[in-house]
């Protein structure tokens, strides 16, 4: 009886606060700027009170209004909101596509790539390859084993199926003059082998396919792997040797 | 970090904020441990707790011994600016500096006469007669004019330079009007334009020299981190055109090991940039028109190898080395061109735009650096930063930073130094302006993730990053050039929370920014020096800083930071900061008050040291000894100062035989007396025979107690006289003085007869007294004949007295006239004069030239010649013709 009444009063009071806060936050968020904390809080409030449409609208406005600075967080919030709402793959992909355009080096690119790789559409899978290549361009991703395994998986898939080799060729063309020094130097091979064996495995696979079996990185890592009698690395050598002609087609 | 994003030029300070400060994280207070905050937490811009670093020594300590060659200081304001009493009066009202244009032009004419008047000089030299004798009646008489008087006028002008009573002779004015249009090889107007431009440039360089941006000092840490031997790359030599790679052992005090690898370059080294790629260090070196790159293999002891050099037509303003790819650099020139320079493929032009990017600014300074993407370069000018993709520089670019309201810039704020902070966070950038430092994230361009007003006096031209381990703060050192300021800042970068899908928060400055020792700050800790040594040392130590490098050292639980600072004189100084474990933050204990020279903690014996003196003090001892050795070596190209009387006196002045009138004699005597006592002559009343009482202050300066009196006289050299004065009564003394005077007169007459031979016993002092003898006659009677002390002797040094006057006013004058009278042949007169001028140098190294202060007003040039004989000559700055 009374407890319920008190709860109701508290609830009403809270609701009053919510409305007050909502009005203020809405006004502030209208001004072009970076309002990450406020937007997050506002969306939390709206979601709590079940006003998903308004939340969606706020996030859309925050992400797509051209008067605002290009804020990657806006798209991240939108993506997470859509994911929470169980929206379709298509809308998730379109949200991440914009994030990819703004910040190709964003963490979510791995999710994006996995999502695209699973897609049945050829275009999307090609985009996936593009995304992971672009992410690995950045110095911050140099030693990200997850990203390298994504790339290795997709490249391996393409090479084994021998379909869409031109996708790899297209991506590789703009990178072949600097990726070897940037990713596949002998110094890095040594260091990666010492620090992270699985990273060096993934990288060696990519290097072997892209640069052929004479590539310094691949040679060093496979040699070390065979010496250590790791089965994985013997397989690696086999794959690369078998598909070496592919490399000629990529480079040619 | 909520932040409003207005996009318009900076507003004036104090304008209304858009949301009245709502959400600007500058005002957020840090949540205490007791207060709970909802997620996401508000993060204040500055956290209270940072790592504490304390200086290990009281001052910066020299790392290397000073180089043997003498250092030529760059032009100082007093070399370029016009200074005279008249001008100071004129300038009192208006602001802005007056450049001494005439003096520099004069320097050019004197130093390069061939270039200035070569051909006309050759054409006319037959028609101008410069000798003393009367023109002979010859055929050439009609075509020859006698220029002797004019030359004498010019010489007199030279001798009286700086004298406020100087008036142009009408003859000179007439001559310059007549020949201004045709005499000069280069048209005077053109020459003057060029000179003025150069002077203005020098002056602006003096105010702010951006050619040093980036700094010319690099530290290459050891590859494995085990051996404590790193490589210090620094410029040196007289013109800073030698590049040294010096092994340095990091111990308690870092010290050089072995002799450095040395390369001689063809220009002054402005910048040394270094980056480590794949275990190899690449060192880029920039001078004005050349850039070069060296490779230092990772192994210690391996010799550095030069790889490639490029030459630019326009001075280069930036050289940075890629941290991603071996052998890649970026170069900017002052014409607004940005190149990507690869050792293998050569230069690739990325951008060419002589205009600045966001709004118009006159500065030709450009900068460029690398970003997280090895193919994307940033390029900067004073108005902001842009990022370009090297694969398609025309199409793919975005604005990273703009001086404007977006970043909350002030009016007049300009970019001074951008730096890629890749070693701390792959996508972060440091931008310093003269007011603030900004940290930018290239994923969220235009909006700084951290802004802090650094409050340095001069704009920070050097920056150095020491990345911290994950979770720890990164340290940024900012250094200014002219003021040698050093500032240590710590910041923590954004917290990446991968599980939540990457939420990004602003950077946070942690702890208090800390001011570090500057090189010139060590002066107060050094032992007391002789005044001129002190001055030289001060000049040396306060030379503008030219570079900055630092390294973190972890020795088990002890962490320390070594900071190297390079000065324009080529000195490398170092200071160690020691990390203090978590302690309650104490108020900064550094006292900046000046300690008495010589009594500093640096030179006090620390209790722990067994040798009695700290290592730092020993290091300073050695450095000072080496420095004084370098000073003592006579500079190779100084000429012996010669004193020519022809420049001082007119023909008529030297026609001495008619003895001075009694009144003149009296005046001479009074003047001499006044000069000797360092006093002043208030009025030239011939009747007032007693000199007016000296002002009280002078009495004080002489020292009231007998000891300092005695010391003062001993300093001046007539200590025995003082003793006699003290012992004898005044009457006896006066009698003695009279006797003495008569005796000296006699001796002088005897000497006169002897002086025809070359065994002249004239001394330095009689030479000086000659000057003071003729002094009054140079003053024309029409002007107020008030002599006053121009400057008081520096405190602490005893007041300087002029040497005792010579007794006879008609002392032999060494004019050509009188020498001729004595039958000395013409060709020998010069030799004699030179010989005497060598004598005039006096003792080899008097601590303070015994020059009368009062006479300086009349004979500035002669006095300065005398006094500079003992000091290394300061080079007159010449414009770069």
From TrEMBL, chain A:
One of its GO terms (biological process) is transcription by RNA polymerase I. GO terms for cellular component: RNA polymerase I transcription regulator complex. InterPro entries: SL1/TIF-IB_Component, TAF1A. It comes from the Eukaryota. PANTHER family: TATA BOX-BINDING PROTEIN ASSOCIATED FACTOR RNA POLYMERASE I SUBUNIT A, TATA BOX-BINDING PROTEIN-ASSOCIATED FACTOR RNA POLYMERASE I SUBUNIT A. This is TAF1A polymerase.
UniProtKB/TrEMBL annotation, chain B:
Residues 872-881 have a biased composition (Basic residues). Coiled coil: none annotated. Residues 815-881 form the TAF1C C-terminal domain. It comes from Loxia leucoptera. SUPFAM superfamilies: WD40 repeat-like. Residues 851-871 have a biased composition (Low complexity). GO terms for molecular function: RNA polymerase I core promoter sequence-specific DNA binding. This is TAF1C polymerase.
